[in-house]
C-alpha cells in the first residue's frame, strides 16, 4: 500500500474515532412562545357584569349573608379553572380564598394578598334615587350599595387573578385572593377568625386592600393616596340619669335635657392638631398640587406662628383633611323616652371616636368629662375598640411598584402616603408584620368618594375599568417573573 493510501486510511480512522467520543449534538430548540397577552378590554367588560351580580346579593351587615356572595365568586373563578375554597365563620357567613402559585417553591414571606370585604352597611331606601340592591347602570355609573365599599374592590381583585390566569403569567411569588366577611362590624366574625384560625390559607408578606384613594380633580387624577396607616375606631356611650316622672311637672334633672346639653358641647369640640409622619408627608406632598390659597395654608400647618389658623382653614376646606389632622368625636345615636308624657330616668347617646394611631379612648373620655362638666353624665368605652398598629413602609418593593405604575397610568399625578380616617382590616395584617397597603384603584371625585356609606353610592364605569387596569399592572409588575 502506498504511503498516500496509508495516510488516507489513517485520516478516516481518526475521524471515526473523534465522532465516537464527541458529545451528541442536541437539536436546536425552538423558542418557547410567550404567553398570549390578555384581552383586558374583554375582561373589564365581564367585570362590570360580575359587579352588578355581586351587588344584587344582599350582604347588609347585620346579618351579613356573605357566604352566598363567596359562593358566587367561586362559580366565576371555576369558569377560568381557578380553584377556590370557602370557609364558614357563622351561619350564612364566611369567606373565600383562591391562589395562583409562583413558578418557584412557595415562600409565604414573599406572597401577595389581594383582599376586599363582601359585607356592606345598610341603607335608607327613601334617600336613594335608584334601587340600592340592583346594581343599576345609569348615566355611565354603576349604582348600588357596595359599588365602592367594597364590592367594587372585591371584583377588581378577582378580575386581576383571572386576567393573570388567562395570560398564562409566570409568577415569582404567589398571588392570593381573599374575599372576607364582617368588616363593617369590626371583623369578629371575619378577619379576626381568618387570621387566628386560617392564617396558613392567606399567609403573605404583602397585601393590597381598600383604604387608599385615586383622587380626580378638574377632570384628571391629582394624586394617588396609598394607605399606609389608619385611624383607630372606638365607641363611647354617654349616659345621663335623672328622676322619672310625669311630663306635666318639669324637672331640673331631666336626663334628656342634660344629654342634649352634653351632646351640644361635644359636637362643637375639636381636638388639637396632632401631626404624625404619614400626615406630615401627605400634606407636604399635596400642597404643591393645590391652588395658591390652599397651598399657602397647607404649607403653614407646621409653622409656629400660623399653624392654628392654617389648621382651621384646612379643616373648613375639606372634612377629610380635618379628620386627618386630629382625633374626632361624632355623635351617631340618641336614645331616650318611652312615652310622650313621661320623663325618662335615663337618656343615652353613642359617640363614634376615631383616634390617631397610638392614642387611646380612655384619654378621650377624660377630655370629654372635663368638657361636659356635669355629674349627671357618665361615659363608658364600649368593648371591641380597634387596635393601633405600626405604619407600613414607604420604601418597600410593593410601595415602589405602586408608585412606578401610578405614574405610568396617571401622567402628572403625585403618589402620596395616606392615613385613612376610616378603619380597615389591614390592621389585622399589620399586627402580623405584613406590609399592607390601601389602594382603592378607581379614579374618583371627592363627590363620589363621599357617597361611601351614604346615599346613591356609585362608581363611574370608566373609572371602574381603569382601576382594574391599574391594579392589574401593579400586580403584574410586582409579582410577575422578571
Your description of this structure?
The protein has 482 residues and is α/β, with parallel strands linked by helices. It folds into 2 domains: 40-211 and 424-479, Zn peptidases (Aminopeptidase); 232-274 and 291-381, Alpha-Beta Plaits, CATH 3.30.70. The protein has 16 helices and 19 strands. It has helices at residues 3-21, 40-55, 66-79, 151-166, 191-197, 199-202, 255-267, 277-286, 292-298, 307-317, 319-325, 361-372, 397-409, 426-430, 446-449, 461-479, and strands spanning 84-90, 93-100, 112-117, 137-138, 141-143, 175-180, 206-209, 213-217, 220-230, 232-241, 245-246, 328-336, 342-343, 346-355, 377-381, 414-420, 435-438, 443-445, 458-460. Strands 1-2-6-3-7-17 form a 6-stranded mixed beta sheet, with helices on both faces. Helix 10 (307-317) crosses helix 11 (319-325). The longest helix has 19 residues, at 3-21. The radius of gyration is 29 Å and the shape is globular. The N and C termini lie far apart (66 Å). The model is unreliable at 1-35 (pLDDT under 50).
